[in-house]
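Thought: the user wants the 3D structure for the chain below. I'll pass the sequence to the structure tool as-is, report back what it returns, then summarize two notable features.
Action: structure_tool
Action Input:
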Amino acid sequence: MTPDFAEGLAIMLKLAGIADPVREHKFHPKRKWRIDLAWPEEKLAVEIEGGVWNKGRHIRPKGFLGDLEKYNTLTVLGWALLRVTPQQVRTGEALTLIEEWFGRGGK
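Observation:
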């Protein structure tokens, strides 16, 4: 994930009146996993998945399997996860998804 996309999405969220997310939130007590944008109180995680079109880490076998472990653990711990691409951040689709999640009262 390119930090610029997380920063851009955080600015969009602020303008939309959504509470500021925690950036690079460490959600697991033992593992070093981090979430791009998180609302720990609401247990909402947003991951911006880079490298979708250029064979980045997230779509190679080792990265994909690592992400599965991270995302499944996140879910077992009671978190909701929204996965978006940089393109979805640019078009505003990521913002819309997050607004919908908060608009429905979260979980």
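Final Answer: Structure generated. The chain has one domain: 3-103. The chain is about 45% helix and 20% strand.
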